[in-house]
């Protein structure tokens, strides 16, 4: 698997042993434009505050440019979390794509170009995050609209998961409309099947487009959709939240 960059990130924050569950969320923010057609990054920030996750994977995030706001910068200031961007469109006029916000130190970042032929540019943001002494590999992505596109993109991502050296979370907007679609069947060969509440559209959720996959699967406690009144209007997707159990090693170190 060939990454476009491999950047080490320093952090002043010191890791501590984590004894509670991790809360990991994925959220397609729809460019911070709500279902009322209004650009309102502050509403997205308020939804993130409602969730209070340890790690957020965000899709469709405006990242600045001469003709576009930097929504990630606004969300980072509102939440006080560490921010990492993974643009899939990067021009002087407009930067746009995936992002991660986390309360934990980010140890390394890689980006993967998942663009398929002449279709809309896609990518994955792959970050090693030190979650209280245990490093998780968090891969945040937004797959394409065509089934052939998604199949190719999943194969690219899975190339690095054959022998995972650390626990892995793969999450994002997979754009898979069909419960038995090939994209989901292929992912089940590497991850335990997780519950997938319907998240799209917020007016009347019919489709489970947003997914969270965890390895090892026994660490996953449950997955919930965050269907607050504010989340219903802030984007056309509801956020999805996974609750992950602390490692046995962390629990043992605290009880010793």
Structural class: alpha+beta
Strand order across the biggest sheet?
1-6-7-8-9-10
- The percent of residues in helical segments reads 10-25%
CATH class: Alpha Beta
Would you tell me which CATH topology applies? Deoxyribonuclease I, Chain A
Number of helices: 6
Radius of gyration: 17 Å
How many strands appear in the DSSP assignment?
Answer: 12
The residue ranges in which pLDDT falls below 50 over 5 or more consecutive positions are 1-15, 252-256
CATH superfamily: Endonuclease/exonuclease/phosphatase
* N-end to C-end Cα span: 40 Å
What percentage of amino acids are in beta strands? 25-35%
How confident is the prediction overall: mean pLDDT? 88
Q: How does the overall form come out from the CA principal axes?
A: globular
SSE run: EEHEHEEEEEHEHEEHEH
Number of domains: 1
- Tell me the CATH architecture: 4-Layer Sandwich
Main sheet?
A: 6 strands, mixed
